[in-house]
Design brief:
Structural class: alpha/beta
Radius of gyration: 18 Å
Largest sheet: 7 strands, parallel
Order of helices and strands: EHEHEHEHEHHEHHHE
Oligomer: single chain
Number of strands: 7
Helix content: 40-55%
Number of helices: 9
Length: 266
């Protein structure tokens, strides 16, 4: 079934990891995909992968912390494919993993710009084009890290909390335009996972054992189909929802305290 046939979708951060997995799933579901990615080499490569699958695809170099870049990517989608039906806000710019007291204003600003502001700008820019199509689908990326208060991610947790608020507000207000707005909280074997697995022997096995399903997720096979579902007519009566796509990891959660941090300090 080509659930996204004739749909035009823009995916930020689609040059690798989960974003690439979602882009591949969208292409196989029949969508025309705009790869909005900062890294030109990886973005071009993914666009070529999608075209090899028979999909229409376009790479647009995009710094999601730039309002001008995001608006240009949205406009490029419309110019190239005639409109925009689906927006997936996935990209973000990570900061160093340090304790909350060591996070700087600049780190928080970088994270807010690449997540909250990026989603805000993209959603506002996409709105008139979705209204012109009679509706649309927006999928924002959330994180389990916020729910457990993950150590060393204070700025990221703050930003992702705001993403939920933005998702619910847009779902409430934009339903009158037939626009569904939802969030997913995925965990999968993306770039960060592979880096940690390479640096820490046994990390992959430990990560799999924490999940009720007993395995780690694949960006294309496990995450992509859920985002396709939310982008398709199959989810036409779902909005304002947050879906965990993590093999059940959100049930037990996980302990993120670094081993070298004392329990009590004065």
């Amino acid at each position: 079934m080509k659930l996204l046939r004739e749909r035009v979708a823009l995916i930020t951060g689609a040059g690798g990891g989960i974003g690439r997995g979602v882009a591949l799933s969208f292409a196989k579901a029949g969508a025309a995909v705009v790869v909005a990615e900062l890294d030109e080499q990886s973005g071009t490569a993914v666009a070529q992968e999608l075209k090899a699958l028979g999909a229409r695809a376009l790479f647009v170099k995009t710094d999601v912390s730039s309002k001008e870049d995001i608006e240009a990517a949205i406009q490029a989608s419309v110019d190239e494919f005639g409109g925009l039906d689906v927006l997936v806000n996935n990209a973000f710019a990570p900061t160093p993993n340090v304790l909350l007291e060591d996070k700087t204003d600049e780190m928080l600003a970088q994270t807010l710009n690449s997540t909250v502001w990026a989603a805000w700008w993209a959603m506002k820019a996409a709105l008139p084009h979705m209204k012109a199509r009679g509706g649309g689908k927006i999928v924002n990326f959330y994180s389990i890290d916020t729910e457990i208060g993950a150590w060393l991610h204070g700025d990221y947790n703050t930003a992702k909390s705001a993403i939920v608020g933005l998702t619910r507000s847009a779902a409430s207000e934009w339903g009158r335009f037939n626009i569904c707005v939802n969030a997913v909280a995925p965990t999968a074997m993306g770039a960060t996972f592979h880096k940690l697995a390479a640096e820490n022997p046994g990390f992959a096995e430990m990560s799999a054992s924490m999940r009720p399903l007993g395995r780690c997720g694949d960006p294309e096979e496990d995450i992509g189909p859920v985002v396709v579902f939310l982008a398709s007519e199959m989810s036409r009566f779902i909005t304002g929802e947050t879906i965990h796509v993590d093999g059940g990891l959100h049930l037990p959660g996980y302990n993120s305290r670094p081993k070298d941090v004392p329990v009590r300090e004065y």
